[in-house]
Amino acid sequence: MMTEGWNGPYLAIYVAGKGRVQWLVDVTAAAALRALLGHVTETVDPDRDCAERFRQGDRAAFDTLVRRHQRGVWRMVRRYLKSDADVSDVTQQVFVRAFRGLAAFRGAASVRSWLYRIAINCSLSWIRDHKREQPAEIDDHALVEGPVAPGRISETEDGVRLRGAIAQLPPKQKLVLELRVFDDLSFKEVAELADCSENTAKVNFHYAVKRLRDILGGSDDARG
Q1: Which of 85, 149, 189, 197 could form a disulfide with 185 if both were Cys (CB 3.0 to 4.6 A apart)?
Q2: Computed over its alpha carbons, how large is the radius of gyration of the chain?
Q3: What is the DSSP letter of 79?
Q4: How far apart are CA 188 and CA 206, in angstroms?
């Protein structure tokens, strides 16, 4: 898919049958563990300069944003859609829409959370328009890119177990935890995407982590 005015570096890096996102290995096991230990930090918006340069006519600045965020946007869309091919199509739609709208971006949110909001909206629109075409639910094991090297087997198993525990969380807690940990968003960004206050996001994150420790039989000694 191409769009008038932009045919930048978007690459369908995840293709059906080839590019399973490693939620359970590279993200779930590592990033969620970091969250449970409290090793997550607030970040400043590194994309503000790119957005400003784009508004001043530097189209290459948008290409930089695509390279920085295409994987994250793909992961966000993948939470809503089941087919990797559909996810790639919707991901490109996200950047087409972002290209058309970035000139009007005024920085009320971070560029990343703005992109993720577009990703959510595009995903929900796709679901609405293709409701009867949705495939059956995919087992979490299918999301692990395979084959897995022997040294990563235990990590994969831990990831699957953790994903099962996360699935048991209340919806708001699950959303906040995933945005905070998997996407490495600040609480301010999480609050924007979860439609709640920053304090409410922090409270939901706290209870999500506590609940996960209970489910997984973790110790309260491992506090963040």
Answers
A1: 189
A2: 18
A3: T
A4: 15
DSSP 34: H
* Window from 23-32, 102-111, 121-130 with minimum mean pLDDT: 23-32
Rounded distance between C-alpha atoms, residue 83 and residue 89, angstroms: 10
Report CA-CA distances (Å) from 61 to 47, 53, 56, 123, 218: 9, 6, 10, 25, 45
Alpha carbons 89 and 123: distance in angstroms, whole number? 10
Residues whose CB falls within 8 Å of the CB of residue 108, separated by 6 or more in sequence, listed in order: none
More confident residue, 176 or 27: 176
Structure tokens at 38: 């409290």
Could you tell me the domains of the chain? 23-216 (1.10.1740.10)
Could you write out the DSSP letters of every residue in 206-218?
HHHHHHHHHHHT-
pLDDT at 78 over 70: yes
Q: What pTM does this model have?
A: 0.66
**Closest to 174 in 3D by CA, of 159, 162, 192, 188:** 162
- CA distances to 62, 83, 87, 102, 202 from 19, rounded to whole Å, are 24, 11, 11, 29, 33
Amino acid residing at 221: D
Q: How many CB atoms lie within 10 A of CB 91?
A: 29
